[in-house]
Amino acid sequence: MLRAVCLVFFLGLVACSSNDEAAAPSGGSGGGAGDAGADTTAPPAPYTVDAFDKVRINSDSSKENFQHALTDVDFGAGPFEKVTLVVDLDTTCYPFDKWQDNPPPSGQNWPADCDAFDRNFEFYLDPAADPATDPPGIELVRAITPFGGPLHLDVDVTDVANGLPGKHTLKVVIPTWSDGAGQVSGSDGGWFVSAHLDVVPGTAPRKVLAVKSLFNGSQTKPDPIAAIPFEVPEGTTSSRLEYRATGHGGVTGASGCGLSPAEEFCLRTHALFVDEKSFTDVMPWRDDCDTLCTIAHQGPANGGFDYCQENPCGAIASVKAPRANWCPGSVTPAYDFDVPELSTPGSHSFRFQIGEVADGGSWRISTTFFAFGE
Fold first, then answer.
1. What is the pTM (predicted TM-score) of this model?
2. Residues 6+ apart with CB under 8 A from 223
3. What is the pLDDT of residues 251-278, one digit of tens each?
4. Pseudo-torsion of CA 247, 248, 251, 255, nearest 10°?
5. What is the 3-state secondary structure (H, E, C) of 326-368?
6. Distance CA 98, CA 360 (A)
7. What does the buried/exposed string (b/e) look like for 73-84 if buried means 16 or more CB atoms within 10 Å of the residue's CB?
C-alpha cells in the first residue's frame, strides 16, 4: 500500500511520500557462548569485515537484488570487546544538484532511479531457506529510510557476535517500489547500501550463553499468537528480551488513530507474556519525528521551496508527524526487558498480543532473546 502526501516542488515537480511495510522476512537463529573471562594473551588487532559495497536494492522484480540483498560475513572466533555494524544508505534523489547530470526522463517528475519515499530498512542475521520450517532471522536493526535522502547508522552488535561467533549470512531488506509513470517517485527507483563490521577483539562485556530469535514477521490481526517455546541454557543468571514493533498500513477511518492511514498513526497496546503470564504492556509510539526536520531552502529566496535536510523529498508536515513507533530517517530502538523468570534455566515460552489492528493495517514485530552468565 502507499500513503501519499504530496510536496509541490519548484518547476511544477511533485513529490509524494509513503511508507511501505516490508514483507515478513524469513531467517535463522542460533545460540552460542561468548566468554567474558580474562585472557592473559594480547587480543588480535581490530579489523574490518566487508559486507555490502554500494549494492543496489532494486524495485524491479526482474533485476538482481529485488527489495533485498544477501552476503556472507564472518565475525571471527571471538571473544569481542566491541562489534559495530556500520551502514551507509545512498540515493540519487539528493542532493538536488545530482539532477543536473541525472535529469527526470521526459514527462516524468523524478530521476528514474530515485526512490523518493520512506521505506522499511532492516538487517537480519541468518535468513532461512524455508520460513515455514526454519527459525526466524535475528533482526540486528530496524530503521526507516529518509524520504529520498541518505542515512548513516552505527549499530552495536557486540552481544550477537559474542553469542554467535563465526560465519553467517547477512540480509538487508528495503521494500522499494517504483512509479512507472515517474510522477510520485522514480520509474525505476532504488537505493544503494554499503555496510561493514568494525570488530575489536578482546574481553567481552558480558558472557553471552545464547542468542535466539523468537519471532520476526508481520501481525495483521489482534488475535493472540501461539506461545513460542524456547530453552534458557544452564548457567544463565540474567537475560534480555528485545521487542521491536512498528505500525504500518493503508486503511482510513480506523478507531484509536490520528492521521490516516492506520496503523501508521495508531496508538496500540501490546501485551507481552512469558510462560503465559503478562509481564508488561507497551504502547509503541514516536513523538519526536519533528527533530528529523531541519528546514532548508532550495532555489532563489523569492522562489523555490523549503524542505527537511534529513528528509529532503518528504512533505514537511508528514516528516514531523508522530507515528506508530517509527520516524522517517531513523532507527527504531528495541524495547529491552530483563524478565526475572528467564534467568531460570529450562523450558519457557513467549507471546504477544496487540489490542487492536485495523483491517488493512499491519505491525512489524521481532523478538530476540539473550541469555547471559557470570
1. 0.88
2. none
3. 666 666 876 677 899 999 999 999 999 9
4. 10
5. CCCCEECCCEEECCHHHHCCEEEEEEEEECCCCCCEEEEEEEE
6. 37
7. bebbebbbbbbb
